[in-house]
Write a structure and sequence with these properties.
Blueprint: H1 2-43, E1 54-55, E2 61-67, E3 70-85, E4 88-103, E5 110-117, E6 121-129, E7 135-139, E8 148-149, E9 154-155, E10 158-159, E11 162-169, E12 172-181, H2 188-199, E13 211-212, H3 221-244, E14 249-250, E15 253-254, H4 257-273
Helix pairs in contact: 1-3
Length: 274
């Protein structure tokens, strides 16, 4: 039975370790992202909020949109990722949508987004309000990518103009954006492909016609280590109290209060005899 109890204790400790690491990581990482985002919004450094590494600093669409007593600055940039496919570097380009709320009630934390293009093309995304900061963007729930990828809007190998972006929650439209995003707005892919052909690697800095965002690095290892040490100290103390420390017992049974008094009386009598 003692072995079983120790095994159960060990399993509980292992689960606790995972929870401590996960909760600490999520808490401090989210706090860091919120701080960075608020700073960028205050500085109006909107290109720093683009999630893709490669982009063009001039938006292909920029407008103040007012709907339902809500005001948004809507920015759409051309952006791209570079990934490996069959050991070859492939450029995946498209559009990055950013919306910054300037007035009115905020949209929900999460909502559905549908992008409509010519030839009856419809592509679904998930929209989000980043930590309820009034900064909105979208991601593909299947790939987790944040770009409106160009290759999703091709029909018969021809890019179909994107005309409308609709936000809805539980079937009710909460925001609608009329746009005209065309093939000729996407220019950075050619520059990236040329660089890859000449250098056999992806650029890690700005090149002609393409801006570059350094990957965001958030280190919270020291905080995770601190919390893990505190947790393990508590675990050691509990282990000692549960499995090591021996209670006062007589044989296998705990000493009752009455028996304790009898033992103390016998000790006193022995002392008086002396």
């Amino acid at each position: 039975m003692k072995i079983v109890n120790r095994i159960i204790f060990g399993l509980i400790v292992a689960v606790g370790i995972m929870l401590i690491a996960t909760i600490t990581d999520e808490y401090y990482r989210s706090r860091a992202i919120i701080g960075i985002t608020q700073e960028k919004l205050e500085q109006e450094a909107y290109t720093d909020l683009i999630s893709a590494a490669y982009f063009h600093e001039t938006p292909v669409y920029e407008d103040i949109v007012i709907q339902n007593n809500q005001e948004f600055l809507v920015l759409i940039y051309q952006a791209a990722h570079i990934t490996y496919e069959n050991n070859d570097l492939i450029v995946l380009d498209g559009f990055q949508l950013l919306m910054i709320q300037q007035d009115g009630n905020q949209l929900p934390e999460y909502f559905d987004v549908t992008v409509y293009a010519d030839q009856d093309i419809e592509v679904g995304y998930t929209g989000f309000n980043l930590y309820n900061l009034g900064l909105y963007s979208i991601f593909n729930p299947e790939t987790q990518g944040s770009l409106i990828l160009e290759n999703y809007y091709r029909k018969d190998d021809i890019f179909q103009t994107i005309e409308k972006i609709v936000f809805d929650k539980e079937g009710e439209t909460i925001f609608e954006l009329n746009v005209s995003l065309t093939q000729d707005m996407l220019t950075i892919a050619n520059a990236l492909e040329t660089y890859i052909e000449e250098n056999n690697e992806a650029p890690s800095k700005e090149i002609e016609g393409v801006n570059y965002n350094e990957p965001l690095q958030i280190s919270i290892r020291d905080k995770v280590t601190r919390n893990m040490v505190i947790y393990l100290v508590v675990v050691v103390i509990l282990y000692y109290l549960i499995f090591i420390r021996k209670p006062k017992t007589l044989g296998k049974d705990k000493v009752t209060e009455g028996l304790k008094r009898d033992i103390d009386r016998l000790k006193d009598e022995k002392k008086s005899d002396l």
